[in-house]
Design brief:
The chain has 240 residues and is of the alpha+beta class.
Length: 240
């Protein structure tokens, strides 16, 4: 019998090595989060003591403490994103309808989209083959792509989700009419820790690609400044 991709010994060895590194990295991130949480809590107590102070000194101290609080929150956000990135390893696969996963995600995300004046337009194909998905991780993909589109449309806009079959595979396109990306951003967007946003972790899109590739899928992007961005995902069918 021909060995499948998942039965290849070299692939299994690499996956095991990755799992060990991811475990170590995740443990380190947790070790950083614990004292960071203590620092944040004490800063909050200090801010409460100074809040309402009448002296110029109290107001200056409160401003400085609030600045440190913002930086602590930024560090916590980076660590949370890194932990998501590090955890992408072994998958809990089940035979699933991609449309069903999309519809469940949209029911969850639609209220936030409305708050940001984003119109969602789903066009889901009929009679699509099932795919083997880790539903939790695929939902993370959809959320990361939705947030990426949301940030590209600060004044609102249109977000289209299209699912269809092509060349024997199940496809999903995520299309926004936001600000788009220049060539530098497009060439680096899947690089870990690269971000065009001052507060960005640079892990959202690398995590998306990592999850899709773990499903033996592919993801590509087309973008034009001022016109929007299209992410295209292709997944093998369950019987592929």
């Amino acid at each position: 019998m021909t060995k499948t991709q998942f039965e290849d010994p070299e692939r299994q060895r690499l996956l095991q090595q990755y799992a060990e590194i991811a475990t170590l990295a995740g443990g380190l991130a947790h070790e950083i989060k614990n004292p960071l949480s203590t620092i944040s809590m004490n800063l909050e107590l200090l801010a409460e003591d100074l809040d309402g102070g009448d002296s110029a000194r109290d107001r200056r101290m409160l401003t400085k403490i609030q600045s440190v609080q913002r930086e602590c929150q930024h560090l916590e956000d980076i660590l949370d994103a890194f932990l998501q990135f590090a955890r992408v390893g072994g998958l809990e696969l089940s035979e699933t309808s991609l449309n069903e996963v999309i519809e469940e995600f949209l029911a969850f995300y639609r209220p936030e989209a409305e708050e940001h004046n984003i119109e969602i337009s789903p066009h889901l194909g009929i009679d699509l083959a099932t795919v083997k998905l880790d539903r939790s991780l695929m939902r993370q993909v959809l959320m990361n792509l939705a947030l990426n589109a949301q940030q590209a449309m600060p004044d609102g806009g249109l977000l289209e989700l299209q699912s269809f079959a092509r060349d024997g595979r199940v496809c999903l396109e995520f299309i926004d009419n936001g600000c788009g990306m220049n060539e530098r951003a497009q060439s680096n967007m899947f690089r870990v820790f690269f971000s065009t946003k001052p507060s960005g972790s640079g892990l959202g899109l690398p995590t998306v690609r990592k999850i899709i590739e773990a499903h033996n899928g592919t993801i590509t992007c087309e973008s034009e400044v001022g016109r929007g961005t299209r992410f295209s995902i292709s997944l093998p069918p369950s019987d592929g």
